[in-house]
Amino acid sequence: MNVDELVRDALREQAAEQAPAGAGLADRVLAVRRRRRTRRIAALAAATVAVVAVAVAVPVLDSDRGNDVRPADVVPKTEVTAHPDQSPPRDLIAAGNTALAAYYIPKTVKKTSDTAVYQRTYWLLNQKTGTYEKTTKWSWVAVAPGMKTAAVLEQDLPASRIGLLDLTTGKVERWIPVDHGVGGLAFSRDGSKLVATTYGENPDLRVKMEGSDGWDQKQPSSRTGFHVLDVASGKGSWSEVALGSENDPDEPMGGGFLNSRQDFALTGDGTHVWAGHPMGDIGKQFFDLSGAEVSVPAKDKYLEWYVEAGKSPDGRLVAGQFAGEKWKTSSWVVDAVTGKRTEVHGQQLLAWVGNSSLVAWDIAKGGKNEFHQRLVLVTIGSDKIVPLSDFRKGSDGDAGRWEPVFAER
Amino acid sequence: MNAERLDSFREFVDTRSSALLKTAVLLCGGDQHAGEDLLQTALVKAAGRWQRIDEPEAYVRRILYRQQVSRWRLKWRRREVSVAEPPEAGTGVADAAAAAELRLVMREALSRLTARQRTVLVLRYFEDLPEADVARLLGCTVGTVRSTTHRSLARLRSLAPELAALGPADAERRSAPDYAPVEVRP
């Protein structure tokens, strides 16, 4: 007997012994959809953290610096500042022009017997001392490239105003009032525009579902649309993005599931607004700046909403999902035009450092726990892995796990 | 989704879920719970697109295979699978008993492959699909299917020395210079 014949026989024998599927599977599947308890799907390729769609990479410098919130003395930086003994970090972590501008530690805080809020406590980099300092003022922080300015939201979401925080003084320089409540913010790559995702209620609200021990996202999502704002003037427009009938909770076969927080971001060139659409045909949706839905721009078709690093600064490569072929933990980097995939070290790609390196979460070589990750610097075509922080403890969702926020420095 | 579509979804699940579950459990290395999870997740996805799916079974199977190989976490979260203790080998054991024992050994070894390795073997030897079809389903090249098959069989032999006496499979006889690197779990 050959080994393949035995494989075949063993598989067939095992299949023959298999008990039939239990009754009621169709109802269970439909119930899952009805209750939109599909976090597992939304989180298939990523940890169940919210997407922090801050601008993360080195921008193409805009000749018109009138609207540029970056300091004038930005010069390319090449050095790596690592603290492989710190988790969460106390002192600045950076690689090249990309710095850990902040991090947050989320906690699900019970509000009533059946509601809670997934709350972020931020630690922002004090640029004078080079250390991270805790602040409880903000529910959301997006750091602009240059790390001079952050856009912030106060604690009760959705917020009716956006603060522009001066990161050198720690003071809010300006408030931008908005007529639709905002739950999330992301800068354009050049820092001149801000996209603010609007929600009818707090997107971080958690509820107790019948038959569930833990906290679930509230469904359907209350997302209403987005503002695109000019940072310098504070002016902009709001566009409604309807969830559509597919998101009707009474519609058991609807394909329009959205996470309760499904924030918008600007594409690398700032010409489109996009967001993940986990159950949609291509998993994402694109809009022009006036809010009209458009088909996916050719150069953005490989973007994945749950891969924080997004596109490389030169727009040629897109950070992709987990690969795990060549190495136990690795990810794909995808050619934005051809779709050709290259495997790079790193379990989860977080931010580009130039056009060929990335900051990623990764486990130790031979590590057994997929959640014990540290920040590392990896480079396409290189086996070198440079640790930047110490390992995170606990499992996904455990208290005390920190989540990074990167920005161009 | 109208009542007609809803009925067609229910009918599909009622008539095909037992067969699909067999595949799902094999993909998960014999772990019944993981197989049920995998199938349920695939059906939830399919339900979302029911109106647009022409060939439901092919669609659900494709989700099963791809999901399994992309859900790398399962590689580590795999629960221990209990396999009946193989009987003591010895002289005088009837051929049938020896063959049954080998199948149990093989089953245990299969459960210890990576999800990707196991998926390729299930597609090749349980579903009897040609290499080109496996490549299309998994979104990889025929060369990768070949190399994964070859390495998976080699891995089975290393996991279970009892299999050493077996003859080589066709896939092992063929030289394959285009072997892509494949994860081999220690």
From TrEMBL, chain A:
The chain crosses the membrane at residues 41-61. InterPro entries: Quino_amine_DH_bsu (IPR011044), WD40/YVTN_repeat-like_dom_sf (IPR015943). Keywords: Membrane, Transmembrane, Transmembrane helix. It comes from Streptomyces resistomycificus. This is WD40 repeat domain-containing protein.
TrEMBL record, chain B:
GO terms for molecular function: DNA binding; sigma factor activity. GO terms for biological process: DNA-templated transcription initiation. InterPro entries: RNA_pol_sigma-70-like, RNA_pol_sigma-70_dom, RNA_pol_sigma-E_actinobac, RNA_pol_sigma70_r4_t2, RNA_pol_sigma_r2, RNA_pol_sigma_r3/r4-like, WH-like_DNA-bd_sf. It comes from the Bacteria. Keywords: DNA-binding, Sigma factor, Transcription, Transcription regulation. Residues 167-186 are annotated as: Disordered. Residues 106-156 form the RNA polymerase sigma factor 70 region 4 type domain. Coiled coil: none annotated. The keyword Transcription applies. CDD domains: Sigma70_r4. Belongs to the sigma-70 factor family. ECF subfamily. NCBIfam families: SigE-fam_strep, sigma70-ECF. This is RNA polymerase sigma factor.
